[in-house]
Write a structure and sequence with these properties.
The complex is a heterodimer of chains A (238) and B (271). With 238 residues, chain A is mainly α. Chain A is 82% helix and 0% strand. In chain B, a hairpin with a 2-residue loop joins strand 4 and strand 5. In chain B, 35% of the residues lie in helices and 25% in strands. Chain B has a 6-stranded mixed β-sheet with strand order 6-7-8-3-9-10, with helices on both faces. Chain B has a 4-stranded antiparallel β-sheet with strand order 2-1-4-5.
Chain lengths: 238, 271
Amino acid sequence: MSDHIVKAYDEDLANLKTMLAQMGGLAEDHLAKAIEALSKRDTKLADVVIAQDEKIDALELQLEERAILTIAKRQPMARDLREIMVAIRVASDLERIGDLAKNIAKRTHAINEQLPRKLAAGLTRMGRLSLEELKDVLDAYTTTDDAKALDVWRNDGELDALYNSIFRELLTYMMEDPRMIGPCTHLLFGAKNFERIGDHATNIAENIYYLVHGHTLREERPKRDTTSVTAFDSLNER
Amino acid sequence: MDAMIKTPVAENAPRIAREKPLKIKARNVDVYYGEKHAIKDLSIDIPDSAVSAFIGPSGCGKSTFLRSINRMNDTIPSCRVTGRIEIDNRDIYDKNLDVVQLRARIGMVFQKPNPFPKSIYENVAYGPKIHGLARNKTDLEEVVVTSLKKAGLFEEVKDRLDHPGTGLSGGQQQRLCIARAIAVNPQVILMDEPCSALDPIATARIEELIDELRQNFCIVIVTHSMQQAARVSQLTAFFHLGNLVEVGDTDDIFTSPKDKRTQDYITGRFG
C-alpha cells in the first residue's frame, strides 16, 4: 500500500507492527520453552518461562497505549483503522497465549515429580501442534496472508481431536487408579491450555481475515472439541 | 415532464437508498465549464430524510454537482449540463420549469455565513415574504420563530431579533443562514462546506442541527472533513477528477471502501 502524506502516521503504524512482531516472537519462544521443559522435565527452563511472561504483559500494555494514541492523533479510517483494531486484538490473544504457556510451565513442576514419563507424551504432541499453529498464524499476520490464516483456522480441528482423545485417555487412567487423579488433573489442565492456545491462534486468523476483507468471517469454524459434553457413562460403556 | 428514471442506479444499492424514498435521481450527468469536463457521466440516487455527503479532493467536481442540483450553474455562462436530474420524479432541467420555484424548494448554505445586511428577523422573514408563504404579520412571525428554533438559534437571539444578523458570531451566523434556508420550507437542503469557517464547538452545534433536520429534509453536504462526513451522513459519495468513484452507506465507506482510490483518499494517502 502506498504511503501516507503524513509520514509520521506510517511510522506509527509500522511501530505497532514491530511491537506485535516482538510479542509474537516472545509468545512463540515461551511456548516452545514450556513444551521443552515439559518433555525434558526441565524445571529450570520452566522457571525461565514463568519469569519472562512479564515481558509480554508489558509489551501488550505499551502497544495498547500506542494504539490509543494513534487513534486519537490520526483518526484512522478504513484499513488503517482495521490495522490498529486488529493489532490491539492480536496483542491481547498473544498475551493470553503467554499466560497459558506460563501456566503449563508451572504445572511442569507438579507433573515432573509425580508422573510416569510416557503419560506426558500425548501432551507434548498437543504442545507441538499448538506451537505450529501459532507459528503459521504469526507468519500469516506478518505477510497479511489471509489464505494461510484460513488454513490455520480450519486445521485447528486437529488439535481439538487430539485434546478429545487425551481427555478420554486420562479419564480411563484416573478411573483405573485413584492415585493418578492428582497428576492426571495437571495433565488435563495442560492439555486444555494447549487447546486454548489453538483457539487464540484461530482468533488471530479471524482477525487477519477481517483486516484483509473488512468484514468478519461468516463461516462457522469446524469444532471437534467435544469434551465439555462428554459424560462419564459413555466412557464406562466402552 | 413525467418521471423517466424508474430503476435504481445499481442493483446493490446502499441500504439507506433502499430504506428511504429517493428524492434526487441523476443519470448520466455531464457538466462542462467551457472546455473543462467537470463532471463525467455521473449517476446517483439520493435518499430523502437522510444526509448524503460528497467527499473528494479539491477540484473533483463535488461542489459542481451540488450546484447543478439547484441549477446554480445556470448563472455561469460557459457552463453546460447534460444528462438528467430529477427531484421528486420531475426533471429539473425541463425548459418549462420555473427555476425560481425550484430554488424555493431547495435551500442552500454556503461555506462562509452570508447573512443579509439586515436584522436577524428580516434575514429569516425575507424568503417567506418574497415567496408569499405568510398571509399576515402574525403568520410571518411564527415562521421566523419556528425556523430560528429549528436552527437552534432562537434562545440565543430572542431578545435581539432587530439587531443586525452580521453582528452574530460565525457559528450563529451560519445557523441564521440555516434558519433562513428552512424558512421557505424547502424539501432539499444543499450545504457546501457549512462548517469550514467555524470553530469546533460551533461545528458540533451545526452537526447536531443537521442530524435533527434530516428527519424532515433531504440534506446533501459537501465537506472536506472526512470525520464530519462520517459523523453526520448516512450516504457517502466519493468524487475524484470529475468521476463519481464510489457511493455507499457511510458506515461501509469509512470502514471498508471497495475502491482503492476511496481507500487512499480517506486514509490520507493522496488528495
